[in-house]
Amino acid sequence: MSADYYPTFALDDIANLHESAQVEFKLAGGRDGNGTLPEGMWESYSAFANTLGGEIILGIKEQQGDFTIEGIVNPMPMLSEIWQILQNPQKISHNILAPTDVQIIEIMSKKLIRIHVPCVDVKLRPIYVGTDPYSGTYFRVGDADMHASREQVEQMSLKAGIDLKLKQLKQ
Fold it and tell me: What is the pTM of this model?
């Protein structure tokens, strides 16, 4: 299996859409309905990066376990915001995405944003939200993003060869 291989799934089969260990849907509609990045998206980014990798699909609504494709009216500003956040170490510890990992896709004449988050090498973990690895590290369990415990963060850091206490003293 090549390093670029990752499982795919069919988004056009609406009746069978569901979240899983490697798929997360977010509405991203915003108050005005034109689209905004959901805060919880970054927890999923951290969780996928620290676990098996996965796909975040923006523009899909969940209601009582059923998913519908709502789309994003104007996805371009959201794409710009994604890249700005990924380049800001105050928001995300590392940008692990390549330009091809973030795409606008169209299904049933509706635009969605598909973000492929690769599983990162243990030497880069933990990937976390914000500036504190202890409060911002997540991992994926089933279809949920779970907050990593202090011990789990320290185990990831040890495997990566990072001394978090020393790193925090420098900040």
Answer: 0.85
> 46: buried, middle or exposed (CB in 10 Å: 19+, 13-18, 0-12)?
buried
- Mean pLDDT split into 10-residue runs, the chain, 171 residues: 46 63 86 78 97 94 85 92 96 96 92 95 94 96 94 90 59 48
8 within some domain: no
When divided into structural domains, the chain yields a total of 1
User: Is there a contact between 78 and 29 (Cβ–Cβ < 8 Å)?
Assistant: no
CATH label of the domain that carries residue 120 = 3.30.950.30
Q: How far apart are CA 9 and CA 3, in angstroms?
A: 18
Q: For residues 57 and 67, what is the distance between their CA atoms, to the nearest angstrom?
A: 12
Distance separating alpha carbons of residues 123 and 102, to the nearest angstrom: 23
CA distances from 31 to 50, 58, 76, 104, 116 (A): 31, 15, 17, 21, 26
Q: Is residue 146 part of a domain?
A: yes
Let me know the angle formed at the C-alpha of 136 by 58 and 34, rounded to the nearest 5 degrees: 25
- Amino acid, res. 68: T
| Bridge partners (DSSP) listed for residue 42 | none
According to DSSP H, which parts of 37-163 are helical? Answer: 40-50, 76-86, 133-136, 150-160
What are the phi and psi torsion angles at 74 (to 5°)? -130, 90
